[in-house]
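Example noted here:
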Amino acid sequence: MLTNGFTSTNSLTGLLKQIGVAAAYLLYGVLTHRYFSLNGVVSVFWPGSGLALAAMLIGGRHYIWGIALGALLVNILSNHTLIGTMGTTCASLVEVLLGTWLLTRNDKFSPSLDTLADYLRLITLGGGVASVIGALIGTSALLLDGFIHQAHYLANALIWWMGDTLGVVLVTPLILACLQTKPEQLTGRQQLEKWLLLGLTFIAGEIVFLGWFNDGFISAPKGFVMFLFITGVALRLDMRITALALNMIAIQALLGAFLKTGYFAQEIASAGFHNFWFYMLILSLVGMTLTIYVNERKQKERSLRKSGNHLHLCQTNGGIGTWEADLINNQQTWSENCFTLLGSSAVKNPNYDYFLSIVHPDDRQQIMDALQSHIECGTKYDVQYRAIAKNGTINWMRSAGQVERNPDGKPALMRGIVQNINERKLFVDLLKQSEQHFRTLANGGTTLIWTSAEDKRCNYFNEPWLRFTGRTFDQELGEGWTKGVHPDDSDCLLQTYESAFDKREFFSIEYRLRNADGFYRGSVTMAIHAMTSMEFFSATLDFATTSPNKKAARESSGRVKRNCEPICTISLISSG
């Protein structure tokens, strides 16, 4: 995780980490100044820049204090004046802060270097761009210090930039790979391969850069030989080992130059490490680019396998198969579940004719017409048909798909699904039977029945209701039925209905309803909310409001409530 804010730590662990960063920076600086710098100050390889950037990317910006301490100690030991010491220290700090900001100012960079884009951002922004500022500030401080002459300003600035950039290119990926990525779980054979490749690379480096066995060669091995070994490491092993191998080769090359032996024997005297810099830069780019590319491929392959497993699980448990049809070559690819659902034998190269042979003869024309209409007119391809399994069983299936066209607009590919809908067809048939049964019961009696949907608007009236009101079904739909309610009863009825609907509770109310002759008749409505849906079911019975026997009316109301309950049960079944 990247930490973009300045924080302080008082824990012993945090203090030890700061001291560790400072000590590592000091060690890198002392060794580089003593053995591999041209004038005791600037070098074409400065590992401290790579260490500092890695520490900031991994641990956060509070590691700036450990970096500052290490840089300050290195510059004090270089015998600079106060201006030179403070200036070069500030150069290192500004450079690493700038590099960290350039990389973490958005979410495009991952310190685990998952993609090639991450690596390129690291070496260009964290290395090449940020090192320009550090080189200019540091060289200016040396100029003010009197350590370098004005005529040598640009040359020293260039060497400073080269050293810090190569430090980021070599050291930062090694630290990030070791601390930000998980090592691969290797088998015994893979472990043997890893150590064999590393061992061969080490021996090749000793031969090329340190002169091992050179007396037995007609001519000394050339530096390009190492590209073969680093390529093998990058292709076969992970990023950790590749970064380790690159740093191992860099150390061997520097030692050979210092000892004046091997491929870079004349490097210090003739080229001032410039050839070494270009060599290691190109070798690192080749090795890291290859290993990250291979790692990306492996990640994508793992992701594809994981997605394939998830798809297979979804298809198996969801009762869905997938297919892909090459419309140009009349070839198809079916998922394993496709064959299972269709009840057919798995064949290597299924095609459209094979599919039609599985379909019931009475349904084939329907499928051909639907497919032709989809391809030519763009209508939706979603068909239901019967498939004959190899054991003779007939299954109801559903197929849906979408055509894909080539740049010329011609149909080239079609992808879709197949689904067993036996249970759905059975449910629909039972639902139709239940609906018909409900309507038969509702229309066969004298009770006035209506239902409403989740929008509180009525969506059904039985035939006794329509005969009583003398209105059509379309006239009563929605809120049309309220026109038959007596004006004095309308507000109370609607308020009671809406309140009961919102609370999902039973209600009963008496009101006057106009019949087909235009007279208002007294009626009682009892309604209940269907628990399996958002519908309301109501039964209404009419009785004369002029009845002199109020007790008889109440008894009639009680009978209505008792008689309503079984009808409500029928409604709940049909609406579920």
